[in-house]
Amino acid sequence: MIIDCHGHFTTAPPQLSAWRDRQVAAIGDPVNAPRPEDLAISDDDLRESIEPHQLRLMKERGTDLTIFSPRASFMAHHIGDADVSRVWARVCNDLVHRVSTLFPGRFAMGAMLPQSPGVDPATCVPELRRAVEQLGAVTVNLNPDPSGGRWTAPPLTDRSWYPVYEAMVELDVPAMVHVSTSCNPAFHTTGAHYLNADTTAFMQLLQGDLFADFPDLRLVIPHGGGAVPYHWGRFRGLAMALGRPDPMTLLDNVSFDTCVYHQPGIDLLTSVVPSRALLFASEMIGAVRDVDPDTGHHFDDTRRYVDATPGLSPADRTAVYATNAERVYPRLQLPDSCGQPQQVTLPETRFTGDQQSALIGPDDHRNPLKRVVLTHTLHLRPPLGE
Amino acid sequence: MIIDCHGHFTTAPPQLSAWRDRQVAAIGDPVNAPRPEDLAISDDDLRESIEPHQLRLMKERGTDLTIFSPRASFMAHHIGDADVSRVWARVCNDLVHRVSTLFPGRFAMGAMLPQSPGVDPATCVPELRRAVEQLGAVTVNLNPDPSGGRWTAPPLTDRSWYPVYEAMVELDVPAMVHVSTSCNPAFHTTGAHYLNADTTAFMQLLQGDLFADFPDLRLVIPHGGGAVPYHWGRFRGLAMALGRPDPMTLLDNVSFDTCVYHQPGIDLLTSVVPSRALLFASEMIGAVRDVDPDTGHHFDDTRRYVDATPGLSPADRTAVYATNAERVYPRLQLPDSCGQPQQVTLPETRFTGDQQSALIGPDDHRNPLKRVVLTHTLHLRPPLGE
To answer: What ipTM score was computed for the predicted complex, to two decimals?
Structure first.
């Protein structure tokens, strides 16, 4: 079982961007704004946008399930106002929900939020609830810089973000901290802004005390944590200088993904960050789509690096590929080996002593996709992966 | 011979910050602005600020010479206007010049520039010339974001920066690309802004064609290149996607320093970046001053990591510790083994064929410290370091 926790719908049918162009053109001109129902994308369109692309690569690479959210660079929260973002988030979320239902067991939905610069993040909570409760999202993408490279929002530890965190904790979904397109010419979107945001977010968390207020909150920092694991000694030293706990303590609540596109980078990541805080991911088909001429394989075929890295034991690799994701994304509905959704019911006798007893069986949560809570996954199935 | 290419005057006598406070308080009130000559710091004050701090640590760690510039976080180009920056740069540069003359052979001067947000970088050229020609600076610090975390300046490839580059090439000095204090609450200065700037600058260079216009321009990206070496595969893939040459080609003009404060980070750096593009540095006494409880040594004692890394051969290590710096900073006046400035005159017969012939002997350059050009250093002395 291999779960890729970081995929975006980068191959959406062109009707989507055409609809967005009309929406942007109609900013300030609501009479000409397109309606969500004007977007005509058939199920066959969706299949054609997925099967020869993400699904083909998943099969080639042996990835079972991808957590799949709207295209990050298209979120573009800096465009228009909160109402523009509200409609756009709804359209994009509905589309990835359809993908997740067309390919059950292959794609689990992640949602975007209708953020807007200078607008109270609490305004995102209704769409967050809709995405999780009605569409089956298992996570959301949270943009720490809805201004698109101007960085006008307060740090993630600011109380203005708390209504989002409260809803996340209540709904038991994590967030991936992920910016969108940079409209600042200083920052290339995928070459600078994405990595900078990862580093920035981690440092904000190091400076603050967010997880004292939200001990159950879980955040995923993508792209291998930006610069953080490479500079782990710096962050440890800064924590000491600031009178903060060692950054390792943040890893009870923060995970890094493995979107690092060469072997030495993955080797560094796995040597520095404990496996419990690593989630397998590729972000394919994303920023880097070419074949590395030195290896003959795609840069973003991160499974090769994770398989080859000496920093992971077989048990570590199982954690990185699957069981960590089951813990971080408890709403994940996991397929069995035939690729079909699995309903797990275990004999209660497997759990003894202080182990939790009430974790078995489907839990509806008003979710159209039945939810299975797997907090003791190592008891629930044979070792995965390898 | 070990050259540390990245030191700042972080231990300047308190009179300096008091003078700066008066200068900042008098913004908009020029009558009460302090004059540069109001700053009273004696030579003994300077010795006391250096000997028990940087010089003690240099001796303990076996570093021979530090390239020493004004404190990066104090540059604060976002404060006041170009005139405020002009006077402040002059004061700070004069002070590091005095340090370099009080400790000959131990500290070589780096200069700050009087940048100011929204102001033409060409206005920095007179202070750049003064620092190099009159004060003996061997390099300058170039701030890609004088706004202090708002990132309002155009990329480093923009033609507005060209007058600075033209002067640098004419004077044969490199620049370290180094931001200053972040006044943006999203960015911790040393935990996010510095690293983000390194990543951002490299990506700007990857997108542009700066070194086609300035083949002799040399830039140093500090803090181990920010996130770049850790994500080297990403940058290679992005270069392909953008139709740009492999990022390795940038390393003819760009060097990374070794300010990465743990062994795995240095191991990654030396395994990914060829030694010709690495410059030893510690940035001590800087952002991270504590002792790593896991090792019992200072986090910023980078010599330990560079000595221990398997990624460098003895010849590579010599390059990283010294000979690369001689190439990147040709105005460096190198001490002999007794710590005194060295005047090197070689028999011309050592050079034959297509080797340069006019490189021997002091070259004044209107520099009060005599300059020795050592472009064939491997001929000039026995192997260094180790």
So the answer is: 0.88
